[in-house]
Design a protein that fits this description.
Low-confidence stretches: none
Oligomer: single chain
Number of strands: 0
Radius of gyration: 20 Å
Structural class: mainly alpha
CATH topology: Growth Hormone, Chain: A
C-alpha cells in the first residue's frame, strides 16, 4: 500500500481510504451476522408464543431468508460489477435493518416469515459487493489477511447474535431482540455512502485488466463463470460446508436446551463466548497461514481450507454425540477453530479464480449456489428429521456434510 500508482501509472486507492473501507465493511459484516444469529436463541420462546412456531416452521425462517438472499444475489452481482458499489451497499444495509426491526412487530407467523425473507434482499447486496470492493482496495499479497479481518466479524457477529438474542429475549422478550438487532444498521448505511469506489481491477497487473476488459457482461457473465472448472469445484465444496454450518447454527441453541439440559440464556451466552474465541483464532490463523503458503504452494487457499475442514469433521461428530460436557464443549471448540480457518482463504480463492471485472458476479453466483444447495435445505431438513425422530439424531447430518466439503476442496486443489 506504499505505492500510489499501479504498474501502468493508474492511481491506486489511498491507504487511508482502503483501511477506512476495511473498517466500515467489517463493522457491516459484524452487524450482518448479528442479525442472522439473533434468531436461533428465540426458538423456544417463539414456539411457546401466541405465534406457536413449530420446529419445521422455525427452520423455514432461516430457509426463507437464505432463499431470498441467494435469488437476489445474482442481480446485485451484475449491478456490483457495473454500478456505484457504495450506493448499492447503503441500500442493502438499510433494507435489511428495516426488515429486521419489522420482524419484532409480527402478529402472526406469515408476517414474521415475510420479514425474515426480506432481510435477504439487503444482505445479498452486501455479500456480493463487499469482497469485490476490498479486492480493489488491497494488493493480492495482503488479501488473505484482509479477508481474514473482514471475516473475523462472522464469529464476533454470530456470537453477539446469540448473546443479544438470548439476553434480550430473557429480559424483554423476543420482539425486542429484533429491534436491538435491526436499528443500528441505519447508521452504517449512511456511513457506507462515504466509501471510495476505485476502478475494477486497479490492484491487478495491466495485462490481467486488459484480458478482463473483454470478459462478458450482464447475464452472460454467469455462463462464463460456470465454465471455470476450479471455480465450480470450489463452490461445490463451499455448498457442503454451508449445508453443515447453516443447519447447526440454527439448531445448536435448541439442541443444548433439549438434549443437554442447559437453560436457554446459558446456552446462548456460552455458545457466543466459544464462537468469539474460536472464530478469532481460526480466522486469524487461516488468513495468515494461507498468505504465507500462497507464494510457496500452488492453490494454497484451497489446500488450507480443505485440510482444515476434513480435520474438523470427526470433532464435529464427537461434539454432537457425546453427553459429557467437558467432552462436547472441548470437541466443539476445536471443530469451530478448524472450520473458521477456511473463512478468509476460501473467499480469497474465489476472487483469485475469476477475471477482475467478474468478481462481484462471482461472489453473487457463489452465494446463490452455496445457499440453494446448503443452508436453504439444511435447517428445514434438520427440523423435519427432528419432528420425525429426535433433534439428537437430526444434527448428525452435520459432520457428514463437513467431511464432504473438505474432501471436495482438497480434490479441487489437487486437480486445479
Amino acid at each position: 500500500m506504499t505505492d500510489s500508482r499501479s504498474d501502468d501509472g493508474t492511481r491506486l486507492p489511498p491507504a487511508r481510504a482502503a483501511w477506512f473501507g476495511l473498517v466500515v465493511l467489517t463493522l457491516i459484516n459484524l452487524l450482518n451476522y448479528l442479525d442472522r444469529y439473533v434468531v436461533p436463541p428465540l426458538g423456544e420462546s417463539l414456539r411457546q408464543s401466541p405465534l406457536h412456531v413449530g420446529d419445521a416452521q422455525f427452520g423455514k425462517l432461516t430457509s426463507a431468508f437464505v432463499l431470498v438472499y441467494m435469488v437476489t444475489a445474482p442481480l446485485f452481482g451484475i449491478l456490483g460489477d457495473r454500478r456505484s458499489r457504495p450506493r448499492l451497499l447503503a441500500f442493502g444495509v438499510a433494507c435489511w435493518s428495516v426488515a429486521t426491526a419489522l420482524g419484532g412487530l409480527a402478529t402472526h407467523y406469515g408476517w414474521l416469515l415475510a420479514a425474515r425473507a426480506s432481510v435477504g434482499i439487503g444482505e445479498a447486496a452486501y455479500g456480493s459487493i463487499a469482497p469485490a470492493l476490498l479486492a480493489d482496495y488491497f494488493p493480492a499479497r495482503l488479501r488473505g489477511r484482509v479477508f481474514a479481518v473482514l471475516y473475523m466479524a462472522i464469529p464476533v457477529g454470530s456470537a453477539l447474535g446469540y448473546v443479544v438474542g438470548g439476553v434480550v429475549n430473557a429480559r424483554l422478550g423476543w420482539r425486542y431482540a429484533f429491534f436491538v438487532a435491526g436499528i443500528p444498521g441505519l447508521f452504517l448505511a449512511l456511513v457506507s455512502l462515504r466509501l471510495l469506489d476505485p476502478p475494477r481491477g486497479i490492484q491487478e497487473p495491466p495485462e490481467e485488466r486488459a484480458v478482463a476488459a473483454a470478459a462478458p457482461r450482464g447475464v452472460g457473465v454467469y455462463a462464463a463463470l460456470a465454465r471455470i472448472r476450479t471455480y465450480r469445484r470450489t463452490i461445490l465444496g463451499y455448498a457442503a460446508y454451508t449445508f453443515a454450518l447453516g443447519g447447526i447454527v440454527v439448531w445448536m441453541p435448541s439442541f443444548l436446551v433439549r438434549e443437554r439440559g442447559l437453560a436457554g440464556e446459558s446456552a446462548s451466552v456460552t455458545l457466543g463466548g466459544v464462537l468469539v474465541v474460536t472464530g478469532f483464532v481460526g480466522t486469524f490463523v487461516g488468513g495468515w497461514v494461507a498468505d504465507w503458503l500462497e507464494p510457496r504452494v500452488k492453490h494454497a487457499y484451497l489446500w488450507v481450507s480443505g485440510v482444515a475442514t476434513v480435520a474438523a469433521a470427526p470433532l464435529a461428530y464427537v461434539s454432537l454425540s457425546s453427553p459429557r460436557p467437558h467432552v462436547y464443549w472441548t470437541a466443539l471448540a476445536a471443530a469451530e477453530v478448524l472450520l473458521f480457518v477456511s473463512t478468509g482463504p476460501i473467499n480469497s480463492a474465489i476472487v483469485e479464480e475469476v477475471p477482475v471485472t467478474m468478481r462481484a458476479s462471482a461472489m453473487a453466483m457463489s452465494i446463490f449456489a452455496i445457499h440453494v444447495l446448503g443452508d436453504v435445505p439444511s435447517p428445514w431438513l434438520i427440523g423435519v428429521i427432528s419432528d420425525a425422530t429426535s433433534l439428537a439424531r437430526a444434527v448428525l447430518v452435520v459432520p457428514i456434510a463437513v467431511l464432504i466439503g473438505g474432501i471436495v476442496w482438497i480434490w479441487s486443489a489437487a486437480r486445479a
